[in-house]
Structure formats: structure tokens, C-alpha cells
Write a structure and sequence with these properties.
The radius of gyration is 20 Å and the shape is flat. It is an all-alpha fold. The protein has 17 helices and no strands. It has two domains: 169 residues, UbiA prenyltransferase (Tetracycline Repressor, domain 2, Orthogonal Bundle); 141 residues. The N terminus is likely disordered. Interacts with CtaA. This is Protoheme IX farnesyltransferase. It catalyses: heme b + (2E,6E)-farnesyl diphosphate + H2O = Fe(II)-heme o + diphosphate. Its main location: membrane. GO terms for molecular function: protoheme IX farnesyltransferase activity.
Length: 311
């Protein structure tokens, strides 16, 4: 985006799209998908309309937490190149409007999920919103380089919420889906941090690249990838997994490990020379990594894949 287009974007009045952008629809789309998978692969039958309402409530709750995040982070968003054009730091939406939207949608989504499914699911949705908006956004993000590690739990809970909405209970399978997303989050965000360069430092966010250095970040990416692989493969041996999931997971994790090793072996001089090709490649792969793992779980839930399940 050029400086002129950015200036024009920051001076225009807010439209409907600006309020939608507060809900972080692109980020939350993956969150909603994992919740949908958690609901579908859970044992038992859910009426399609109830399932639709449940996923809609989870989507609204995820969007609400995004609005609360943008309200609180308006000051640091204004100092980062990739976020300074957002509606709140650009002045198109007042912070109080973002706060009101976030709080209102939070209460609505939790109440409706409880009425439509069960109050355990509603409680987990409320906790997820609280964890993202308060524990991660207000506390962890500005106070510790472990912000992404611990804060990753906020994005990891949706498949559990979907499972509980369908069953009214928790299980090993649901928690392994949580663990998969939780362990995936650090290498995903640290790969991004390596090639956005000084954005986090300029905003005063203690990302690992700023507090421990870029070589340490590369080592951490590899270590978390090694910890992620057994969690991802372990899902294949549960009731929601199977040979189709396991075959796909083996390929995806081999590719992810190869990418993490490439990033670990490089230094910044090599990265600068090819414009962070390996780091960008790992980040792009990480987006597909999580989506495809949960997509494979959906495939395992189909009747055809069920015929191939472990005896």
C-alpha cells in the first residue's frame, strides 16, 4: 500500500466494512473452521439448525474478541506498518465504539450458545473470549515474549467449544485438537515475526525476535515443530482419526519439519539475500498446515473413510 493510498484510507469515514473488519474475519475464519470440525466429528447427532446456530455463535464470539483486541491495541497498531490502516488507529471508528461492539457481541454470543446447546459450551466460549481479550491482549502481549505461547490457547479452544456444544462433555480427542492448535501457534507467528522485521520492536511488543534475538527465534521454531509433530500424529490413533488422516498428517508434518529446519539453518544475511523466502514459505505452509489437518478430520468423519477405520 502506498503512502497516498494509506492516507486516503485513514481519512475516509467509516463504512459497514470497517465495522466488519473489527471482527477480524480472515483471522477468525480458521477459528470458526476448527470449531465446525470439532462439532461435526464429535460423537452423536446434532440437528443441522442447532449446529448452524452453534457455529454462528462461536463466530460472533470470535469476532467480538477481535473487536476487543482492536480496541485495546489501537495505540500499538498505529505504530506498526501492517496494522496502522485499521479502522480504530486510523480514526474511522472511535475506541468506545469498538469496545461497545465487542462487549455486546460477547454477551449475545455466549447467551445464545447456552440457550441453543448447553451452558458448558457457553462457559467455554466465554472463557475463550476472556482469555483472548484480557489474558492475551491486555496482559501477555505487552509483558512477556511468551505472549504467543500462552496466548495461543485462545485460538486453540474453539474445537473444544464445538465438541462440547455437540456432546455436553469433553474428551481426549477434543483436547488433542486443542493441543494441535496450541503447539502450532508459536512457529506460525514466529515465522511471521522473522520477516516483518522491526514492526513489533517499533510498537514495543516483546516478541521473541526482539527479546531473545532472531537466531534464538529460529531455534524455537524448530523445537516447537518437533513438539508439534507427535501431537498431530497422535490424533490419527484416536476415534476421530484413521488411516486417511494419518497419511495426510505424515506428509504435512514432513513438509513442516523440512521448512523449520531450513529456517533454523539460515542467518539473517542469507534471509535478506532472498527476501526471507524460507521464512515466508514456512508461514504460508503453516496456514495450510492447520487447515488441512482439520480438513482431514472432516474426511475421516465421512462414511467412505469410516469403512477404512482401524478395526
Amino acid at each position: 500500500m502506498s503512502d497516498a493510498s494509506l492516507t486516503d484510507d485513514m481519512t475516509r469515514e467509516a463504512g459497514f466494512g470497517d465495522f466488519v473488519s473489527l471482527l477480524k474475519p480472515r483471522v477468525m475464519s480458521l477459528v470458526v473452521f476448527t470449531a465446525l470440525v470439532g462439532l461435526i466429528v464429535a460423537p452423536g447427532d446434532v440437528h443441522p439448525f442447532i449446529g448452524f446456530v452453534a457455529i454462528l455463535c462461536i463466530a460472533i464470539g470470535g469476532g467480538a474478541s477481535g473487536a476487543l483486541n482492536m480496541w485495546w491495541d489501537a495505540d500499538i497498531d498505529a505504530r506498526m506498518r501492517r496494522t496502522r490502516g485499521r479502522a480504530v488507529p486510523a480514526g474511522r471508528i472511535a475506541p468506545g465504539e469498538a469496545l461497545g461492539l465487542g462487549v455486546g457481541l460477547s454477551g449475545f454470543s455466549v447467551l445464545m450458545l447456552g440457550l441453543a446447546t448447553n451452558w458448558m459450551a457457553a462457559a467455554w466460549l466465554a472463557f475463550t473470549i476472556f482469555f483472548y481479550a484480557v489474558v492475551y491482549t491486555i496482559w501477555l502481549k505487552r509483558s512477556t515474549p511468551q505472549n504467543i505461547v500462552i496466548g495461543g490457547l485462545a485460538g486453540a479452544f474453539p474445537p473444544l467449544v464445538g465438541w462440547v456444544a455437540a456432546t455436553g462433555s469433553m474428551s481426549l480427542e477434543a483436547w488433542l485438537m486443542v493441543a494441535l492448535t496450541f503447539m502450532w501457534t508459536p512457529p506460525h507467528f514466529w515465522a511471521l515475526a522473522l520477516f516483518v522485521k522491526s514492526d513489533y520492536g517499533d510498537a514495543g511488543v516483546p516478541m521473541l525476535t526482539e527479546t531473545h534475538g532472531r537466531p534464538a527465534t529460529r531455534r524455537h521454531i524448530l523445537l516447537y515443530t518437533l513438539a508439534l509433530i507427535p501431537v498431530a500424529l497422535g490424533l490419527g490413533f484416536t476415534s476421530v482419526g484413521g488411516p486417511v488422516y494419518l497419511a495426510g498428517a505424515l506428509v504435512l508434518n514432513a513438509l513442516f519439519l523440512r521448512g523449520a529446519i531450513r529456517v533454523w539453518r539460515r542467518d539473517d544475511a542469507a534471509a535478506e539475500a532472498d527476501r526471507y523466502a524460507a521464512e515466508r514459505g514456512l508461514f504460508k505452509l503453516s496456514l495450510w498446515y492447520l487447515f488441512l489437518h482439520f480438513g482431514l478430520l472432516l474426511v475421516e468423519a465421512t462414511p467412505l473413510a469410516g469403512a477404512l477405520q482401524w478395526s
